[in-house]
Amino acid sequence: VTKFYLDTSAHLERWTGSRDKRAEIAVLLQGETHATSSHARREWKRVAEIAAAEVLNAFERSDDLSDVLVHISQLSFREPKQALRVLSLFVRDQSVLDRRVLRKARLFLRSGSRQRFEESVEVRDGSECQLAQNQVYRHSSGSLRLEWRCRKYEDICEQEAFIAARDPQYRAVGKALRDNSPTDRKGDIAMGAAAVAAPDSPRDAKGKVCYSVLGDVSIAMECGDAEEILTTDRSFDTIGPALGIKVRRLQPSP
Amino acid sequence: MSPKTLKRQHRKIPDRHTVLFGSAGSGKTYAFAAVKPMTQYWGRRGLGRVDPIQYSIDDPSSNLLIISQVEDYLAAETFGRRAVEAKRSLQLYDLVNQAWGSVRAGPQQQGAAPKRTARRRAPVTRKLDSALAALHLIIVEHKRDVTTWVSAARALDAAAAEEDAKYPRRAELATAVADALAFTPPDDISDSGLQPLRHAYKALRRGFIAQAEEDQIMSGFFRHRWTVDAVLEETDLASLLAVESDEHSSS
User: Fold this and answer.
1) Which candidate, A114, A151, A94, A95, places its Cα nearest to that of A38?
2) What was the pLDDT predicted at A63?
3) Gap from B1 CA to chain A (nearest CA, Å)
4) B221 CA to chain A: closest CA distance, Å?
5) Range A150-173 average pLDDT
6) In this complex, which of B168, B171, B240 lies closest to A94 when CB atoms are compared?
7) What pLDDT, on a 0 to 100 scale, did the predictor assign at position A200?
8) Which of B34, B41, B207, B223 sits at a 20 to 30 Å CA gap from A42?
9) pLDDT digit string, tens, across residues A111-136
10) How much of chain A exceeds pLDDT 70, in percent?
11) Closest chain B C-alpha to A94 CA, distance in angstroms
């Protein structure tokens, strides 16, 4: 039985993908406990829990689902379809927001998000990322929020030690991404440059660089030798070989 | 079963019925079989007249099953649906005598009063009552048709809407169970896969559902591969995105 190491995209496909994609992943994960990273949890929370919080916030302003869609699309999605798929965690059909949707969103924030993410999956947290531990809270303005950003000068994780312990891996992955990525993958090239520089200046690899640039590299660092990364993200086509890790890249849901 | 619940069972049990009920005490769970004909009211006086035979049960999963079914029995009795009692109670008796090889005489004397434990209950409204009855058809009578499942989902949805203000956690669980029933084809679920529904059935009779219990139910759904969320396919996305873009262009 293959033991997989799930990237954030695999988590999202597992729970919000098309019917066929969910079934495909369920078969792959059947009968084994797999693994993932706290950086994937941080990204999952940023996508799924913010969507739930925005559903609840939006109910205060409007009963129109498209308002929520527009809002969360601006926050953390490359295209509206992704935002819609995440909304399928709460909506039953293309209806207006109603209290039924709110009940699902509340349950999701209380336990559903954590349970889905951890279902048959062990979470590795070498960098002790605080953002991955943050919970949605009610801000003084009355709206629900999740702190998904940090500053590099905040000492709220062990990312510097995490990078220092994996100096050669960061350099190898960074060089591969920087030099071998297709020219249209600008994000991967930037990720490579940041990964190469990280061991020399670990503090600069924290904060925004960590949560918005180096995510996939940080995720891959804790994948075991006998495990296979499960993802839909093309950046792992370069990251995996550089670390000597097998990658199973699925096509994303249409 | 809380003492209050037991005391509330002022319903007449017909003659020659076998009744089982469960109770947690002394770190063990017991099932009690009352095999003598009962003509007395169940309740303050009833337990003394029933002469329960007590068993301790080694298999915790069987405990859950039997207690769940016993509570179903009592719930059915409470709300006046007696039609299936005789048949079901005999089935329960068979469970004790045949399916449980490990059942043995318990440490207490026959006829001893069961130890009662307190559990919080909340009033069951008419809609929730209907929803539980619909759920009952699935978990006890093993109805495996789409109509029954969808109808149970609708009943749970209606109950959740009514419960939302006063018992939000119960309402949220009812909604989750409704979705699980609405989105999962009955044929996809084995008999053991019904376990989270049995737990939910018990939990929904309480106003507040503890976190651990909620976690157990929801993780049961995931473990047994229930589909608990909607699946939006390309056509759904296209229609919704079209609505959105129309709105933007008109504005």
Assistant:
1) A114
2) 67
3) 27
4) 10
5) 95
6) B240
7) 96
8) B223
9) 999 999 999 999 999 999 999 999 99
10) 94
11) 6
The verdict on B246 touching A (C-beta cutoff 8 Å) is no
Query: Whole-model pTM?
Result: 0.73
CB contact under 8 A, B222 and A115: yes
Chain A residues lying within 8 Å of B241, measured CB to CB: 80-81, 84
Cβ neighbours of residue A241 under 8 Å, at least 6 residues apart? A176, A247
Query: Which residues of A fall within a CB distance of 8 Å from B225?
Result: 26
pLDDT tier, B42 (very low <50, low <70, confident <90, very high otherwise): very low
Say which of B214, B218, B229 has its CB closest to residue A89: B229
**ipTM of this complex:** 0.86
State pLDDT tens for residues A3-17.
Answer: 999 999 999 999 999
Contact check, Cβ <8 Å, A84/B243: no
